[in-house]
Amino acid sequence: MNKFLFGTAIMAMTMAYGIPAADASSPPLGLPPVPIPADNPQTPAKIALGDKLFHDARFSSTGTISCASCHADAKAFTDHLPVAEGIHKLKGTRNTPTIINAAYFHLLFWDGREPSLEAQAKDPMVNPVEMGLKNHEPVLKIVRTDPAYQAMFKQVFGVTGNQVTMKQVLMAIASFERNVVSGDSPFDRYVYGGDKKAMSPAAVAGMSIFQNKGRCVDCHTMNTTYATFTDNRFHNLGIGSNELGTKKMQQLAMAFLASKAHRKEVDTTVLTNKDMSELGRFAVTGQLNDLGAFKTPILRNVAVTGPYMHNGSLKSLMDVVNFYNNGGVVKKGEKATVFQSGGIRPLGLTEKEKKELVAFLEALTSPQYVNDGPKSHIRSAASR
Amino acid sequence: MKASMDRRSFLKGAGTLALGGLIPLNLIEVAFGKDNPQNFTFGYISDSHLTHIKGTQFVRNWDHGLRRAVAELNMMDPKPDFVVYGGDIAQLGKKEEIDHGLEMLSSIRNKIHYVMGEHDYYLDLGKYWESQLGPQWYSFDHKGVHFVVLNSILTYPDWTYKRWPTAQERMHQMARLDNPQGSPFMVGEAQRAWMQQDLAKVSKDTPIVVLSHSPLYKIYKGWNFWTDDAEQVQALLQPFKKVTVIHGHVHQVLYNQIGNISFYAVMSTAWPWPYANTYTQAKSLVPKLTVPMNRADPFHERDATGWTSFDLANGHVDTHYQLWSNTDRTVAFNTRDGKPEDTVYQPEDKRIPPQTQY
Amino acid sequence: MNFKHTRFFLSLTLGLGLGLAGTASAQADEFTNADLEQWQQDFAWTVKKGDRLFHSPLGSNTVSCDQCHPNAADTHPETYPKFQKQLGRVATLGDMINWCIQNPAQGKPMSLDDPRMIALEAYITYERRGVPLAPGKH
What we know:
- The complex is a heterotrimer of chains A (about 375), B (about 350) and C (about 140).
- Chain A is mostly helical and about 375 residues long.
- Chain A has a domain at about 30-180: Orthogonal Bundle (Cytochrome Bc1 Complex, Chain D, domain 2), CATH 1.10.760.
- Chain A is about 35% helix and about 0% strand.
- Chain A has a two-stranded antiparallel ribbon with strand order 1-2.
- In chain A, helix 5 (about 135-145) crosses helix 6, helix 9 (about 200-210) packs across helix 15 and helix 14 packs across helix 15 (about 350-360).
- Chain A is globular.
- Chain B is α/β, with parallel strands linked by helices.
- Chain B contains 10 helices and 15 strands.
- Chain B is globular, with a radius of gyration of 19 Å.
- In chain B, about 55% of the residues are buried.
- Helix content of chain C is about 45%, strand content about 5%.
- Chain C is mostly helical.
- The chains are: A mainly alpha (about 375), B alpha/beta (about 350), C mainly alpha (about 140).
- The interface of A and C includes residues 215, 217, 218, 222 and 223 of A.
């Protein structure tokens, strides 16, 4: 199938399924090509199957929670809550990340504990405070016996009955997620599209701050022809760990190592134990460099995916800018732990510069998500 | 864990959890013979260069480094037998700076042996240092190993006593690394005489570990990565079977073998120095053996800094570089080849791009 | 009059003209050894100035460039312009000097044509003389 026909097919799928169109061979403005694993190529039918699985609440112990319960379409694929709430409204410990552009991450979850979208998708299903299943058997039962799924699995993977395995379920979900990519924001049109009217003067000034005084760009990376806004690394900003303090962080780290918690249990431990959650990537690698470190998020659509940080503790973008401006503490003068990243330091931004930086962040919203912010979110006029 | 497993492969197998101290060190002792009294671990913090600006204000960046090293060293489990401070607590030898450093180091839960650095010495020629920390050179024994601590940053008397109008000026001149008006380091006759006497009481089979600030060999004179009487000091150590020199000053991963002596540099908690062979206008003698550390991203202020821990087993030393913002490095003594070797990167085909220095 | 003659008369005129003005010297684009010496001195003076600046605190926290870059080592001036991660764009040596002044030294950036910036660049490149250009090299 040549590129043109393929593109048309994608467009047809968009109309049929309401999926945002994304052609892997020509990524949205401002983004690099979507990384597609060789053993899980994109097809419209697979994306549609993944979409159905993603929205299926039967994959939970109560029958009420699907992936989309937390990664909600109308909320830019988040839930606008500080931390996720699963079955029985059980609270987790971490903020729901958006799946938009998650295809560009090298590792998944805030602590990078899964190496791919395929691997990530299975974990929430069996997490006690998320979808609450004991194992994946209920999922397999449904996809093997539901007639709609039977037909789709046959069509996409050529498998029926017990040949249908979690591997294919996860491949389909990952495929759906890889299709949710978005660029073409006012920032993209200004920088990569050459439209010098696309960003407001405040946002343009904010971009300069982002690359200079704000010290943002070393982690939230930009390149010459595209910007993913993530270095795909893990850093301790001080969120969460500062509140616990250096001494407590030392104790938690040593207790964790002593308990010899295994990789399998990390998913449960960090989402059910608020203190342990603050270990961040340390719980995955045991490396002191990773103590309290969390993954650099992709800043695209950040204006509509609040609240912010791994524990959802910062409500607005101005709160975030203030946090960084103060040198990685919520209130000026508070102490950070010794494990805070060496990249964090007071910035000395003026009030005007802070507002301009916020205006720039607001210019990173793709057109299709502009209305998906939290109800309490007030977009500053400067970003338009 | 087989008792016969050689140390290097154990460390390789420990993988990402080989944090020098955070791996359960009792495993090493089980592997290499609990009944061998000479196996132990010591921690090493060095080159903090705390810089007083005014009042109670110090340079943030260097303060953070020392604080972090202290906190991490305190997490070693089991505790190391003791800790060494490798010199240059202060930047300009000021009482404020030395006190600031000692205050931070006071939370270390071990005995600390101090080594003098030039930034500690040249303001008052060691007067305040000695009042707080004792003699500038001394020796001690631990579990069958003889430790010799030297003040290797002395220099010619003329430069020290006559050349500069004020103590501050002298300190400023010594503080500048690439100073054309600098003067080379040395251990000096008096100390060498003392060392000869001290070593006379030690059997040739006793493992020796020398702790100095400057490297006791010659790398690049222009930056005082140098000890003028290195050969004479090495000669005093030549009769002993197992000798290790641990030094600071160079703020980089550096290791070498000269005859019977293994040399290891420790990390700085403050900032990295370039490798001397990256200065293209002069010749230098950076040991070919060293696999360099990763080049730093100066945005991350803790990059290319850290602290160091040492395992001493069977008279030789294995070095664990605790590198912030980087994968840790272990340089272990290869008993078959008789020299230090990085446990991962020593073969040419295992090198990674950030190790390219130019 | 053929070309040869034209040239002769022109140079004669010019020669006489200049003679009449009281100075005997080369043409505008013929620089002399004396010129070269003079310009080398101008440059060397600027390198010396850059050397002084490089070894003094350029920011607010006493940190000077030579603390990480003795003899300007590890500055790699021959690799510019290149993609500079800290700036998120392809940048010049001057851009990076400003980054260092603002960040490790906590100071204020200079304009790229500031005489002090030019002096710094002169010193840094002089300490790297002879190294082949390698633009873009990381």
